[in-house]
Design a protein that fits this description.
The complex is a heterotetramer, with 2 copies of chain A (234 residues) and 2 copies of chain B (225 residues). Chain A has 5 helices and 13 strands. By secondary structure, chain A is of the alpha/beta class. A 10-stranded mixed beta sheet of chain A has the order 4-3-2-1-5-8-10-11-12-13. In chain A, strands 7-6-9 form a 3-stranded mixed beta sheet, with no helix packed on it. In chain B, 20% of the residues lie in helices and 28% in strands. Chains A and B meet through helix 3 and helix 4 of A and helix 4, helix 5 and helix 6 of B.
């Protein structure tokens, strides 16, 4: 076994952020007053970590603006569910609209930020997040293609590497694509990475991680601009 | 004048032929025309093309029709891992599937309703969704041509209807229903409540009567899943 | 002066239907329960002549379904006007919607009948109704092109000839077109004429008029199917 | 958080530059943002491209801006015989005009708002409207390609607004306003009434807050025509 692989295996055993911490970091990317769509998986945890001093309006692609917290037991109304089919509540000033208007909002550039899960992100910002090659069943696209095509800012939250240690940030996606050149920022359990016209920029690293170690677990070159600080957490 | 209100579910679907193209409203468990779906199950129509965001949940929603092998083709955005009967039929190649991004699914139906002949979008460019579709650059952006999705029937669910066919929807149960109502040749609405004509404020009507051809009240029954 | 012209001049002096009578005849073409759009000019008079036993729902392209009669003096509300800017009333079960939905209804084939005014109709059913060649000013299209493209049945109400006696039903329109092959029926002060794939069919003639006389004032061949009855009036 | 509610008309239009593309709501005298228009007249911006169903009525609605020679190009469906100031400028070739069928005008704005890159329609085929546009046959029908109409600002009129920007409209004063609100980069709503957040039923909101960037209350004043 070559030394490099041994070293990466050792890296994989170092502590990384939890899913909740990734969500917490992503929450800091949401500006006050923003209209935001949160996708399945880690993104769906973000609402729990919003700084108290800001207000964000959550859009659900089934036709809600101004979604509040999840419904408590006994409070559920199954006509008031989010895009994951989970009963939610409303904040004052919420509104309902049909599906065409819901996705007019996604495609038309009206959402300030969308946060999606991801299987792979390429150095150009291509996103693959809807289908694992060879997986059983029909697969399903849902709203991800409309959302990725239209959000003013698209953040992807995901683990930095697969369970097998393969990089999920890659030169070119090998999984079926969701959208081309759509991702602005990737937040993982190891790093915050921005997609820029010049390439990927490593903005922050997880506590205890060095940029060169993150690079080893990344499938595309990461640029740095000066010292890379530790990931901010709320 | 021809009445739009029917008293029986089986009567309202009586003329649906084998091979019909049917849109089914609903998303995430809300706004599904479950009583109409069950009437179709009782009727036993075959070879249906179903246009629906998803493909049911086990025996719920469209699940029963897949279990009963009534659907041969689906146009959907997210069939769903819990659409067990669909997934079995799909694996057995008894059902074919066209996967469409959710917003584009809705927009293609709207195009049919709006008398448009197709539209260009950046959504899906460079993905499997673009396979076989015309691609061109407009205003400097790569886009693909998406065509209208038409249907013989729209099966929808509303909260209130008056006898003219004006509809309102409850909370997020609105979802695909108003767009499907605009897009099909014959729109059949399952409603929770029939209210007197004039009792829905003109400014609060969500689906104007012109889009609704038949109404049946079916309060209470949800799905047998 | 050739004999033919003298004879036509004499024809032009024979009594013809009034604008109100044209509207009255057109009213008989509206089926019970129909959704109907009435254009400017003669069509706008039709609502006054509906048979009492039928109900028709009037669509106004500014966003009203279920328009009622015009507002009486003192009853006007200038937020409730029709497409001609005239204050109207509502019938029970009316609804309001935005302009995109209003024309989704026209283009999308949802209107059962639309009735428009016309400058010229061709034997193929082409319609010219928005611009007189050489007229001053910018001209204006309004909703006529959307309506003519989409109504299930399009009726045109107009005088049979211009003020100068020139036919308005012609082989080919010389005025700027509104739509191609869109007209189903023309109702004039002399006749009811259907556009069929085989050509124009003279369905009814005005009282005291013979088919051959109507033909003389028509710029395209009129077929007849048996005896041509007198125009029905309500 | 940045506030959407402005207290003064002149403040709400203060950043509108010369040469801006502006959509103006209203139809048939109803739903015109007359107070915003008069604020633009006071400000004296020049070389505006106006996207509006019509071009005012004498000194009313957009009429004042034409009188004041502030508009250089118009995209409209029916400028109108009573748009006397426009007609004079048009005759003098001081204003250029793109005439668009009314429904297509609205649909092209909606396409901009919906992130679509263009659409095909049978409307206008074989007419002057088709001049210079791509024509092709789709599904056996001749159609032309219509492109999105975008704008820097939408000036709209609503009845009620809450501080978040949710809007409702009164009767037929709705017309173009909700579509323009979706289509422009910055939407400024003149409203009759400011109501507390939460007092508009979520199911009755016509324009959701996401589309509205600035709100100013301007009850009463209609146009100076």
């Amino acid at each position: 076994m070559p030394a490099e692989t041994v070293r990466e295996k050792a890296l994989l055993e170092k502590p990384r952020l939890t899913r909740e911490q990734i969500a917490g970091r992503a929450a800091l990317e949401l500006p006050d007053g923003a209209y935001v769509n949160l996708g399945w998986g880690i993104p769906n945890l973000i609402a729990n970590y919003l700084p108290g001093e800001i207000t964000v309006y959550f859009h659900s692609e089934n036709g809600i603006l101004g979604m509040g917290r999840r419904a408590k037991p006994g409070e559920e109304d199954y006509d008031l569910v989010d895009a994951m089919k989970i009963p939610v509540t409303l904040i004052p000033g919420a509104s309902f609209f049909h599906q065409a208007d819901a996705h007019l909002m996604t495609r038309g550039g009206h959402l300030d930020v969308a946060v999606l899960g991801g299987f792979q992100v390429s150095e150009k910002g291509d996103l693959a997040n809807w289908k694992i090659p060879g997986a059983k069943g029909s697969g399903g696209i849902g709203g991800a293609m409309d959302i990725s095509a239209g959000a003013k800012k698209l953040i992807v939250c995901m683990e930095h590497v697969t369970k097998d240690g393969a990089p999920k940030i890659v030169k070119k996606c090998t999984y079926p694509l969701t959208g081309l050149e759509c991702v602005d920022t990737v937040i993982t359990d190891l790093a915050v990475v921005d997609v820029s016209p010049e390439g990927l920029v490593l903005r922050e690293v997880a506590p205890g991680w060095r940029p060169q170690d993150v690079q080893k677990l990344t499938g595309a070159p990461l640029m740095t601009k000066g010292r890379v600080p530790e990931i901010r957490l709320p | 004048m021809k009445k739009k209100v029917y008293s029986r579910l089986d009567e309202v679907v009586a003329d649906v032929p084998d091979g019909a193209r049917i849109m089914f409203g609903g998303f995430g468990g809300a706004g599904f025309p479950n009583n109409l779906i069950q009437a179709l199950v009782r009727k036993g129509v075959k070879n249906i093309t179903a246009i629906s965001n998803n493909c049911g949940t086990h025996d719920g929603e469209l699940g029963l029709m897949f279990k009963n092998n009534q659907i041969k083709h689906v146009i959907a955005s997210f069939p769903g891992p819990h659409a067990s009967h669909f997934q079995e039929r799909f694996a057995a190649k008894e059902v074919t599937l066209e996967l469409v991004p959710q917003g584009i699914l809705c927009e293609r139906m709207r195009a049919a309703g709006a008398g448009l002949q197709g539209f260009y979008t950046t959504v899906g460019v460079g993905t499997e969704v673009a396979d076989g579709k015309e691609e061109r650059v407009l205003e400097g952006k790569r886009c693909i041509l998406e065509m209208p999705i038409r249907a013989d029937y729209a099966f929808i669910k509303a909260q209130k209807a008056d006898a003219l066919g004006n509809l309102t929807y409850r909370l997020a149960a609105r979802n695909f229903n108003p767009i499907m109502a605009m897009a099909a040749r014959t729109t059949i609405a399952e409603v929770e409540e029939l209210v007197p004509v004039g009792s829905i404020e003109p400014e609060h009507v969500v689906t104007p009567a012109i889009f609704v051809h038949r109404i049946v009240q079916a309060k209470g029954l949800h799905y047998a899943g």
